[in-house]
Amino acid sequence: MMSKKVSITLDDEVLEFVDKLASNRSSFINDILLKEKKRIFMKELEDAYKEQANDPDFQSEISVWDVTVDDGLNA
After folding, report:
1. How far is CA 13 from CA 10, 19, 20, 69, in A?
2. Confidence of residue 65 (pLDDT cuts 50, 70, 90)
């Protein structure tokens, strides 16, 4: 994974918090942001599944394909 050096400004209180929890500020902040990225992705995925589940056109299409599951062909 590539890395870029950036400069950010943190409140004194936040920086003190980071320093209490981590010896490497960059790694700590990077880990937190990666976890947030994953959380957002998982939320978007959950929302997409809910949208599909509530979409009658999509559900109708799925029911057509479900018929092929029992067609006796081995994939």
Report:
1. 8, 10, 11, 58
2. confident
Find the helix packing angle between 56-69 and 25-53, rounded to 10°.
80
Q: How far apart are CA 43 and CA 31, in angstroms?
A: 18
CA distance 62 to 58: 6
Q: Could you tell me the CA-to-CA distances from 18 to 30, 50, 57 in Å, in that order?
A: 12, 37, 49
Alpha-carbon span 16 to 18, nearest angstrom = 5
Q: CB of 29 within 8 A of CB of 18?
A: yes
pTM for the complete prediction? 0.68
Largest Cα–Cα separation, the chain? 66
